[in-house]
Design brief:
Helices cover 40% and strands 25% of the residues. With 260 residues, it is an alpha/beta fold. Helix 5 links the parallel strand 6 (134-138) and strand 7.
């Protein structure tokens, strides 16, 4: 109890210092899109770790965050189109970087793996070894630089779905052979949205396609976009130094964050 109280006092002290500093004295407002990507992002679960990390870091820098729950692809495409102010939990791509500002440090690393039907083996050394297979992907998602390059060139045959849940349904129906997704997210989606009989038909590969760092992003044309990113970076640094970043992740029972 004493240890928890000390940690809370440290967090409040950091918050007071940030909000009271001359550059962060003015309170700002920001709306971020929140897609469904459990256990890390879930607007219905306020204790989702990436949501806690992002809102806490902004709060330390005197920014109030409102979350807008939107479908997966709209969560990032809407920000790129300027329909929303920002988002979080997205990998870096050249296309996105043309329109978005990224946080200085990633907020987490996602470990992307393949799921497939039990009884069907798909060994591979390089991704283009899977060129004869149909891979289910989610519109707007980024899996790795190599995956994106092979997909764009047509070397990988992909089938696009609007969500990871839809993608799993395609896998169960035989419409696709493999689907890429973060290991923890894939297992949780199966647990929450599919029956035991359906789960027993699927398996997860241990080999990772990639470890993808994910960031906070703000549309470049948003007034004070650079300041908002600066504030987040400062708040994230304080969250890390206070020990609260590690505590959030330990409480949520997810992997340690990027760079830790």
């Amino acid at each position: 109890m004493r240890r928890n109280l000390l940690a809370l006092m440290m967090l409040l002290a950091c918050s007071s210092a940030s909000a009271g500093s001359p550059e962060f004295r003015e309170k700002l407002q920001l709306t971020l899109t929140a897609q469904y990507y459990p256990p890390y992002i879930d607007s219905a679960a306020p204790d989702a770790p990436l949501t806690q990390i992002v809102t806490s870091a902004f709060r330390l820098a005197n920014v109030d965050v409102t979350l807008a729950e939107v479908p997966n692809n709209r969560a990032i495409s809407g920000v790129m189109q300027g329909l929303y102010e920002g988002s979080y939990g997205w990998g870096h791509t050249a296309e996105r970087a043309e329109k978005l500002l990224y946080s200085a440090r990633p907020i987490f690393d996602l470990r992307v793996v393949f799921f497939h039907r039990i009884g069907e083996e798909f060994p591979w050394e390089r991704l283009n070894d899977l060129r004869s297979k149909t891979i289910g992907v989610v519109q707007g998602n980024f899996y790795s630089p190599e995956f994106s390059s092979l997909q764009a060139s047509g070397a990988l045959k992909t089938d696009v779905a609007p969500s990871d849940i839809s993608n799993f349904r395609k896998l169960l129906s035989g419409r696709v052979d493999l689907i890429p997704i973060d290991a923890g997210t894939g297992q949780l989606i199966l647990q929450k949205h599919f029956t035991a009989a359906e789960r027993n038909r699927l398996s997860m590969q241990n080999k990772a396609i990639a470890v993808v760092p994910v960031y906070v992003v703000i549309h470049k044309k948003l007034p004070r976009a650079a300041e908002l990113i600066k504030r987040f970076d400062a708040g994230f640094q304080q969250l890390s130094e206070s020990g609260q970043l590690t505590k959030i992740l330990e409480t949520s029972k997810v992997n340690v964050p990027a760079g830790r």
